[in-house]
Amino acid sequence: MRRLAPMLLAALAVLAAACEKKTQPTGEAGGAPPTQAPATAQGGTPPAGDDVIVLGEVGALTGGQATFGISTRNGIALAVKEANAAGGVKGKKLVVRVYDDQSKPEEAAQAVTRLITQDKVALILGEVASSSSLAMAEKAQAAGVPMITPSSTNPSVTEKGDNIFRVCFIDPFQGFVMAKFARENLKLNKVAVLQDNKSAYSIGLTEVFRQKFAEMGGKITATESYSQGDTDYRAQLTAIKKTQPEGIYVPGYYSEVGIIARQARELGLKVPLMGGDGWDSEKLFELGGSAIDGSYFSNHYSPDNPDERVKKFIADYKADNNGAVPDALAALGYDAARVAIEALKNAPDTSGPALRAAIAKTKDFPGVAGNITLDAKRNAVKSAVVLKVADGKSTYVTTISP
Prior knowledge:
Layout: H1 6-19, E1 25-29, E2 52-59, H2 66-85, E3 93-100, H3 105-117, E4 123-125, H4 130-143, E5 147-149, E6 164-166, H5 171-185, E7 190-196, H6 200-215, E8 219-226, H7 234-241, E9 247-249, H8 254-266, E10 273-275, H9 282-288, E11 295-299, H10 308-320, H11 328-346, H12 352-360, E12 373-374, E13 380-381, E14 384-390, E15 393-400
Parallel strand pairs: 2-3, 2-4, 4-5, 5-6, 7-8, 7-9, 9-10, 10-11
Antiparallel strand pairs: 1-3, 11-14, 12-13, 14-15
Helix pairs in contact: 2-11, 3-4, 5-6, 8-9, 11-12
C-alpha cells in the first residue's frame, strides 16, 4: 500500500476532500467573519513558527437555531478582536476555527472531534443548545481539552467532567426564576406546560418549573409535549385549553414558540405564555407577530442595562455588526471568550491541565451578562432577568437573584 501509483493517490485525495465537505470550518473569528475559510482552516494547525494560539468554536450557523450560533459567533469575534488589538496573549495572536454544526448534535460531535484531532486547538467555545453541548462535552472531556459553553443551561453538560465549564446560569435556577415570577409577580394559580420532548433543555426546565411552581402553592393543570420541527400544535393546545390555565409555560426555542403563540391565540387561548432564554431571537417576533405580545421569558442579560460596561459592549458590537443590538447569546459568547482569554493569560502554558486550572479559578469576573463566579461544579453563579414581549421587542421587567 505504501507504493500506490501517483494517479491513485490523486484520486484518493479528491475523494477525501469530498468526504470532509459537511464539517468545513466557516472561517476565523477575530474580526468580520470571512466569506470563505482560509487555507489553514482546511488541514489543521498553522505551521509551528506562526505566533498564534488556536481556539475552536462550534455553533449552529444554519438550521433551526441559526440565530443563536450567529449571535454567539459575533460576540466571540468581538472579544478576540479586542484581545488581539491589545497585543494578544503572551505576545501571540488569537485565531478561532469556527465550525457550523447545522443545529444538529451529531454534527457538533464531529466538529469538536476535528477541532481536537486536526486543528489541535487549545480550548473550545460552544455550543448554545444543551443537546449539542452534551455531544461535544463527551469528546472534549475524553481528550482533556477545556470547553466553555456560553449558554447551555442543562445541568448535565458540566457533569460530563472537570474540563467542561459554562458562563451562564443553569436550568434549575432558570426554572425557579419563572416559577417565582409566575406566582409572585403575575399572581398565577394554575399553569399548563408545553414542552419539547426531544430537547434536554426543554425537559430540564419543565421538570424544575413544575416542581417549584407546585412548592409555591401553584397547580400544574396539564403537561403536553411536541418535538422540535413540528408545525402544528393545535391538538396539544386544545387539550391545554380544556384545563383552563391562567398561563402556559413553553420552555422551547424561538423557532417553535412563535408558531405556538399564533396557534394558541387562534384557539382563543389569551393567557400569557412564559419561557426561558431559548426565546431570545429577533425571529421570535417575526414568527409570533402580535400573538407573542404580553408574554414573558427569563434571560441572562438586557440591553436596557445602564451599566457603562454593557453600554460600551453594545456600542462596539453595533459598530462591528451593521448596527445590530446584541442579544443575550452575543453577550454570553463575548463573556465566554473573555473568560477563556483571561485563563490563557493566567495559565503558565496552553496545555489542557494548565488552562483547566486557570478557568476553574474564575471569580467575580466582570461579564456584560453579569459578574461570573464559577462554583465547584464549574457552573456560573449569577442573577437572571425577566423580559416582557410587546410591540416587536422585549423589555426589562425585573431581576431575580439566586
